[in-house]
Amino acid sequence: MPTFPAPDGTRLAYRVIGDGDPVVCLPGGPTDSVYLGDLGGLSTHRQLIIVDFRGTGGSAVPEDTSSYRCDRLVDDVEALREHLGLSRMDLLGHSAGTNVATQYVARYPKSVSKLALIGPGPRAVGIAITGEMRHELAQLRKNEPWFPAAFAALEAITEGTGSDWEAIAPFFWGRWDATARKHHAASQPSNKEAVALFAAEGAFHPEITRAALAGCESPVLLLAGEFDLNSPPRSAAEFATLFPHATLVVQPRAGHYPWLDDAEQFVATTAAFLG
Q1: Which residues contact 5 (CB under 8 A, 6 or more apart)?
Q2: What distance in Å separates the CA atoms of residue 166 and residue 182, rounded to the nearest whole number?
Q3: pTM for the full model?
Q4: Which candidate, 99, 259, 232, places its Cα nearest to that of 171?
Q5: Phi-psi region at 270: left, alpha or beta (left = phi > 0; alpha = psi -120 to 50)
Q6: How far apart are CA 103 and CA 44, in angstroms?
Q7: Cβ-count burial of 260 within 10 angstroms (0-12 exposed, 13-18 middle, 19+ buried)?
Q8: Cis peptide leading into 30, omega within 30 of 0?
Q9: What angle do CA 91, 95, 99 make, to 5 degrees?
Q10: Pick from 18, 30, 16: nearest CA to 193
Q11: In this structure, how many other beta carbons lie within 10 angstroms of the beta carbon of residue 265?
């Protein structure tokens, strides 16, 4: 894997998939970006530059672990842009990576041509995802054979009486089949410290970020899965109102990984937006 130096000297790795104009892709987790694959075939339309955040995948563990904080990862994205020699770039983020992408465009608005937020996590802009939202979405799956046990675990987590996150995994895919189970097993974060410190105190400044986004001139796509318990369509819709030029798409019967649930639909939407 090619690498580049972060501002503090940490060596960061990235993968290059496909040909054409590049799109810089930021994974969630933080975890090894391999779970993104080629985003359902998006690489047949654009070249994907997929970074491993520090301490994950092929990237080195930093000496200063406080640099795992979300707002500090923005500097790593800027270092990648400079390394690639791009004056402006199309930027795509998934899940937690959308918080990095959002803070990046707020800090470097002239460096982003288009911004695609997939399964957008709204912590960077202070949008709350309530238990009511999650219960409402969960009820859409009530005819699934796994629903009773998963819903009971979800209720316990929401009420603070349980912590069986494994039991609610089926809610994150549009189809809880063998492919989803394999993807789930392969996409779990291995660096628990990176996950724990991602949202450490000072990671987010919602009022400042919101004010910056109000002046964002770039076109923005927010793509949410209809069933996405992690990033509900209602929160994505509220998120979209913060941008002057945003398009919200809710992909039918998709969860948190829409390129797996319906690759054709995901690629058609995303490729059309990116151009």
Answers
A1: 11, 12, 79, 83
A2: 13
A3: 0.97
A4: 232
A5: alpha
A6: 28
A7: buried
A8: yes
A9: 65
A10: 30
A11: 17
Strand order in the sheet with 112-118: 3-5, 11-17, 47-51, 22-26, 89-94, 112-118, 220-225, 246-251
Q: Tell me the pLDDT of the chain averaged across its residues.
A: 97
Tell me which long-range contacts 105-111 makes (C-beta under 8 A, separation of at least 24): 105/212, 105/213, 105/216, 105/218, 106/208, 106/209, 106/212, 106/213, 106/216, 107/74, 107/212, 108/74, 108/78, 109/212, 109/215, 109/216, 109/217, 109/218, 111/78, 111/81, 111/86, 111/87
- Helix axis angle for 147-159 and 131-138, nearest 10°, is 180
| Structure tokens belonging to residue 28 | 């969630």
Cα 106 to Cα 103: distance, rounded to the nearest angstrom: 5
Q: What ranges in the chain are assigned the alpha helix state H? A: 70-84, 96-107, 131-138, 147-159, 178-186, 192-198, 206-213, 233-240, 258-261, 263-274
CA distance 201 to 126: 14
Query: Would you report the helix, strand and coil content of the chain in percent, each value rounded to 5?
Result: 45, 15, 35
* pLDDT means over runs of 10, the chain (275 residues): 97 97 97 98 98 98 98 98 98 98 98 98 96 94 97 94 95 97 94 97 98 97 97 97 98 98 98 96
8-state DSSP, 186: H
Q: What are phi and psi of 252, to 5 degrees?
A: -60, 140
Taking the alpha carbons of 115, 118, 123, 129 in that order, is the dihedral positive or negative?
positive
Q: At 112, is the secondary structure helix, strand, or coil?
A: strand
Contact 244, 253 (CB under 8 A): no
CB count in 10 Å sphere of residue 221:
22
